[in-house]
Structures are given as C-alpha cells and as structure tokens.
Amino acid sequence: MKNKQQNILIIGAGLCGSLLALRMGQRGYKVTLMEMRPDLRKVDISAGRSINLALSDRGIKAMNLVGIQDKVEPLCIPMNGRMLHDTEGNTTLAPYSGRDHEYINSISRGQLNALLLDEAEKHDNVDIYFNRKCESVDFENTTARFTEFNTEKEFIEDADIIIATDGAGSAMRQSYYLGHKFLFSFSQDYLTHGYKELSILPGENGSYKTYKNALHIWGREAFMLIALPNLDGSFTVTLFLSFDEGEYNFNNLITKERVLEFFTKYFKDALELMPNLVEDFFENPTAPLGTVKCSPWHYKGNTLLMGDAAHAIVPFYGQGMNASFEDVVEFDKILDAGHADWETIFSQYETSRKKDTDAIADLAIDNFHEMKGHVNHANFREKRTLEMAFEKTFPDHYSSKYSLVTFNENVSYHDAMTRGRAQDKAILNMLADGAITEVENLSNEKLKTILENVKAETEAILEDDRIAGLK
C-alpha cells in the first residue's frame, strides 16, 4: 500500500469520483478515472436532470482539503433561509440559522464538476477517459469490463484497487449483488413522489425575477415546488409530486390545460414568473426519488463503493453532494493513519462511515415531510422561532438539528440526527404541554430559562433512547 505507483481505477467521474481522483492524485497515486458520459465540459448533458446543489460546511471542508475553495466560491450564491410561499403569493423568509455567518450555497452541478475535473487533470498521474461504460466488475481479480461508446468495443481494465463512484445505479454494486460470492445486503426504497425540473428564466440584463438569496419553497402538504438561484439570473425549479396519488399527479398531468390549471391553483405567483412552464413540463423527464443502502461496501482489499454508489439519498436535506464529499474527507483520514494494506483501510472506512450515511438518508426523508408540509404548521414555526432565538442570543450553547447537520462539519451525521431529534421532541413536547407558552419577544433571562429546560429535557430523552437501545 505504501507503493504510490499502485494503479487506482475510479469508475464514475461525477462529483464524488472527480474529487476522489483529485485527492488521490495529490497523494501521488496513479489514477485512472473512467466515465460513461461524454465530457460535460464539451457538451451539455444536463437534460433537465440537474437538481441544483446546496453546498454547505461539510462540502466546503472537502474543497479546503484539496485546496480549491477559493475557486469554488465564485460559483456560489448564498441562501440565508427558506422563502416560504403561501397559496395567495405571500412570502415569509425563514432563516436557516440564528447565526449570521451560517448559510447554504446554491451551486451548479455542471460548473462544480467541470472545476473538479480540471483540477484533477492538472496531475500527470491522473488520466481521465469519457464515453466508457462499465458493464461489470470482477471484484475477485480486480478488473472491470468496459464498453467504449464510439467504437462499441469491449475491453478489460486491470488495477490494484477499484473504487466505484458511479452513482445510484452503480455497475460494481450490481456485480456485488449478482456475484453471490459473499453475503451482500441491498435495499432500494422509492418515495411515492417523483420530480421534474422546470425553470424561471432571467429577467432583463440577467436580473432575478424574485428574491435571490433564498431557497424558495411552495409547500402544499402532499406536494411542493422549490427554486434555487443560478449565477445567470435564472432559477432552477423542481416540482415534487406523487406519480399516481391525489387530484393532481404526474400520471394525470398530461395536457397543457391541466398543467396550467394545477399551477394556477397552487403556485400562482410562481406561474407568473414562468411563461416557459408548459414547454419545460413536457420536454423534461419525470424521474423517481429513492434511497439506496447496502453492505458491505468493500470486497477484501480489492474494491470499494463510495458516494451514491454506496448510499444514495433523496435530495431534501441538501446533503447528497456534501455527504459524498465528506466520504472523501473521511477516507483521506483513514489513509493518513498509515495502515499497511487496503483491506484494513476499506474496513476501517466502512466501519466509521456507514452509520453516518444511514443517518443522513433517514434525515433526508424526514426533511421531505418537513418541507412540503410541516413548515406551514403553527407548532413547527413556533419551534423554529424559538431555535432561531436560541442560536442568535446564545450562539455557543445551542444548535438546531438543521444547524447540526448543515453547519457543524465536525459533528457526525449520526450524532447530529440523535441529538437533533431529541431536541425537536423536547421543544414540541414542551409546546404541546404548555410548558412553553410564548416564543416571541422574550427577554434574554426568560429565553435562557427556556433553553436550560429544553437542554434538560433533551438529555432525559437521550438517556431514555440509550436505555431503550435506540441510540
């Protein structure tokens, strides 16, 4: 393992694969990165499937690890909170944090991926190939079978280790599953909802037609619309809707008239900004939303799954990319420990990482329900009002579940989930029981007393969970 001349094959040059190739290149390994699609720097391959990304502290930590945060920053648009739109078109800005320096960033998947590929390519020991589709992986002999798209020829790529970062439909994960050489657990759970990407085009001279520095949400209980800003003045808009349930669903929105009727009824203020709606709706695909969990992620010291290939999640916590980037950070830490062989490295990495990726997968589904419905409920809004006051007044003594996940990159996802859920339960219980009767315009003294009570209740819930074996 100490021999840096070892050949590392990385399958998949998306965000995780290109970052991993860059980092392994920086560490001196000989890296071959293979990608099924054409080079996104030369052709447009988004095809209405991008879902804008929210880069937050865990992802930024990874950018700092490889020394490119200064190049990433100009690609980012800060979003300080959720802009909530009701059916009448009224808006409320709900901050993500009570601390002014905490915000998430809207960033283009394509621009970030292109930057990572450019940076990886600067290393002579990194070779990147496009239009090469992985068909299967022989994980016992550490070889992978590819088809070269332009010639339709098959070839075998040999390597010392293979790391698959080839996304939710991973060819290597399928080879694990079909190989029947070891006990491999796999689950793929789809939401009843799918998504369709739409857009708000820029105003005159690249101006923004609605408030720029927020993640816009039209939450309607059973479905929702969201919009994230782009550098050119446009917004990437995504509709999350059931395939077949409810009065309006993807299966019955099949005419121009019906689509316009749906948007007029539920998203009137968004529709006014989207004269291109019908064209987008019928041109762009409708795609499913699912969670993938599996184990083990590795086979001996030969092969390893990373990123979405190991743990695909739904996009509602804005942590899919951040989690995959954090994979690379955590893997890098294990490499720093200086283990003598890849098997130990892979095993240690999986042991330390899997509980965290399981946690963020579960949290993302929680947030789906929160975004489309809970944000409109009085007790949820009261809880958030209180949490913002805690964070603003006592910034070193309280972080909400959202802040723990999004802005505390040194707190593991699992710990953020455990503590965050206990805090939520504590506050909601106290609101329901009348132990907290007011949440606005509280004196610092009163706020401090409530915070101390919330903390005590949180610790009691955590202790109960520990005794029950839930923690």
Characterise the protein shown here:
The strands form four sheets. Strands 6-5-14-15-16-13-17 form a seven-stranded mixed β-sheet. It has a six-stranded mixed β-sheet with strand order 8-2-1-12-19-18, with helices on both faces. A three-stranded antiparallel β-sheet has the order 3-7-4. Among the domains are: 7-50 and 109-188 and 290-368, 3-Layer(bba) Sandwich (FAD/NAD(P)-binding domain); 377-468, no CATH class. It has helices spanning 15-26, 57-65, 69-72, 109-121, 171-179, 256-266, 268-271, 277-283, 308-311, 320-336, 342-372, 378-393, 401-406, 413-433, 444-467; strands spanning 7-11, 30-34, 53-55, 77-79, 81-85, 91-95, 104-107, 126-129, 132-138, 143-148, 153-158, 161-164, 185-200, 215-219, 224-229, 235-242, 286-295, 298-299, 303-305. It has 471 residues and is α/β, with parallel strands linked by helices. Pathway: Cofactor biosynthesis; NAD(+) biosynthesis; quinolinate from L-kynurenine: step 1/3. Pfam families: FAD_binding_3. Its EC number is 1.14.13.9. Residues 7-358 form the FAD-binding domain.
